[in-house]
Write a structure and sequence with these properties.
Layout lengths: L3 E3 L2 E3 L16 E7 L18 H9 L1 E3 L2 E2 L5 H10 L3 H4 L15 H7 L3 E6 L12 E5 L9 E4 L2 E4 L4 H16 L6 E6 L36 H5 L4 H4 L18 H12 L3 H21 L3 H36 L6 E7 L18 H4 E2 L1 E4 L6 E3 L3 E2 L3 H8 L14 H4 L11 E5 L11 E5 L3 E6 L5 E6 L17 H17 L10
Parallel strand pairs: 3-10, 3-11, 4-14, 5-15, 6-7, 6-10
Antiparallel strand pairs: 1-2, 4-13, 5-12, 7-8, 8-9, 11-13, 16-17, 17-18, 18-19
């Protein structure tokens, strides 16, 4: 791809030579990605919610990216961007109604050709079956928290237990017994958790019982000046389902969504008698008190928030414990000195900010992801440059000493992990979300983000622009688009947005005036 200079800086889609020559080669790769894990609930970023000592180990012994983002904040599309190194319009998986074209170029295929053993274990969520892997063992669809169903290299089976433990069990077994140990490996370990409905492991049910989570300052956001936010259906107070989301599995508890209620009871019915006994011991007193209290209004909304946060953080604790198991395995088997470990999420998530749960919007909590990387011989400390999930593919390829194909749109992060400060690193990010009308009713939009500003355009269903000064308004409460004094910065950002749309060859563009 040709170099194209944008207003905010030069964006060169190329790679530099690696400086990790002294590290034992070839380098293995373990890429751990959880589903909907907010950066707010990793204590390396923010310790006000939950402690994550094992995930933090990666930050303490490696690099913490403080400006990591996605290209499309939705599970399937995000995974497609990661695999291909391309934006959604280029890899064809723009929303979750699509089917991923498994015949296209992906980094696992390229690593496989280079002699790597490749494995995909856990949540796939791309409709088509995996390609480019020596071994794949994936959850069916979204997967279930208890006794989940898998497809293992084409064979369907049900595994008893809790999903996060099972995925890690399978991954460690493959590392021990399933791979050709004479070859380097690339393992994609994809957790279902903490995706909705945030069902904790039975051993974690009583964690944080006494903790009261502070309500976000903008929990009761009225979305003034943001028409798309007024249309959404992901508000904790109005849209979080008592039965499905909050586990009020009781015949006397009803909601206005019968389908979600049925899904909730289906989750409950998957449990074994032993699992259900432990579950009931924890939840039945909560259900009884809820029925007795008959909460309404803000009291009900804030009760929902506490229930949501308790279960979400319990699920995070299980993830952290299993990340610790992976690190311990690598230590015990003398693999730490030549294995890159990545921990991230397929997108960000709302912890009640704006009153939201879920993701999808280009607002910071959804757009931004955690990214922690342990790389032997690599940088320790913070990396502040803006990176995106299209950057993983070229990074892994360069780490493996492979040529990065010219049609990959991401940039290799390896120079950053070497401690370099490339002068031509990107200074703006492009985002495009497509899935509407659909669950949660978030309108289609694209946008550009710089180090200070975020400009987004909601299109088709509504025609609205939003502009935020992230320095003075980090919570994105005040849309200043069209306000006096913003004309110059708006013009500059629109030019940058169009530049990125042309650079990435997005067929959906606005007409710059």
């Amino acid at each position: 791809m040709n170099k194209l200079r944008c207003i905010t800086g030069a964006l060169t889609l190329g790679c530099t030579a690696s400086a990790l020559a002294q590290v034992k080669k070839p380098m293995n790769i373990i890429y751990i990605m959880s589903d909907d894990h907010s950066y707010q609930t990793i204590s390396a970023y923010d310790n006000s919610f939950v402690e994550t000592p094992n995930i933090d180990w990666l930050a303490n012994h490696g690099a913490r990216f403080t400006n990591s983002f996605v290209a499309n904040s939705l599970s399937g599309p995000s995974r497609a961007c990661m695999l291909t190194g391309k934006h959604s319009h280029k890899n064809g998986f723009t929303d979750n109604t699509k089917t991923f074209d498994g015949s296209q170029q992906t980094f696992p295929k390229l690593l496989q050709k280079a002699g790597y053993q490749t494995a995909m274990i856990g949540k796939w969520h791309l409709t088509s079956l995996p390609t480019g892997f020596n071994y794949w063992d994936i959850l069916i669809g979204q997967g279930d928290y208890y006794n989940p169903d898998f497809i293992c290299n084409g064979k369907q089976l049900r595994r008893p237990g809790y999903v996060t433990n099972i995925i890690t069990d399978v991954a460690l077994d493959w590392l021990s017994n399933g791979r050709d140990k004479s070859k380097p490996f690339c393992l994609l370990l994809h957790n279902k958790a903490p995706h909705r409905v945030w069902a904790p492991d039975t051993c974690d049910l009583d964690l944080y019982n006494d903790k009261v989570y502070p309500l976000p300052d903008n929990f009761y956001d009225n979305y003034e000046g943001r028409k798309a936010a007024q249309k959404q259906q992901m508000n904790i107070e109005k849209d979080m389902n008592l039965v499905y989301d909050l586990k009020m599995y009781d015949p006397d508890v009803h909601t206005n969504n019968k389908e979600l209620e049925e899904w909730g009871f289906a989750n409950y019915s998957r449990m074994s008698p032993s699992q259900r006994e432990q579950w009931d011991r924890h939840y039945k007193p909560i259900i009884a008190k809820f029925k007795h209290d008959s909460l309404t209004g803000h009291a009900l909304a804030e009760w929902k928030y506490q229930r949501y946060m308790h279960d979400y953080c319990r699920v995070i604790t299980s993830i952290d414990r299993n990340v610790g198991r992976v690190i311990k395995y690598l230590k015990d088997n003398n693999l730490l000195d030549n294995t890159m470990i990545v921990y991230t999420s397929d997108q960000g998530f709302y912890m009640g900010e704006h009153g939201f749960f879920d993701k999808r919007f280009m607002y910071e909590e959804s757009f931004r992801t955690p990214l922690l990387v342990y790389l032997p011989g690599g940088k320790h400390g913070d990396i502040t440059e803006m990176v995106q999930n299209i950057d993983y593919a070229p990074t892994f390829l360069q780490l493996a000493g492979q040529q990065v194909p010219s049609d990959i749109q991401g940039q290799s992060m390896l120079p950053l992990l070497e401690g370099k400060k490339p002068k031509d690193w990107r200074r703006s990010l492009y985002y495009h979300y497509y899935e509407y009308p659909a669950e949660h009713s978030v309108c289609r939009h694209y946008g550009v983000r710089t180090d200070r500003y975020s400009l987004m355009h909601f299109y088709n269903d509504i025609d609205e622009w939003e502009l935020f000064d992230l320095k003075t308004d980090p919570q994105e409460m005040h849309n200043i688009y069209g306000k006096a004094g913003t004309e110059k910065v708006t013009a500059k950002l629109k030019k940058e947005l169009l530049c990125l749309q042309e650079l990435y060859d997005d067929p959906i563009r606005f007409k710059y005036k």
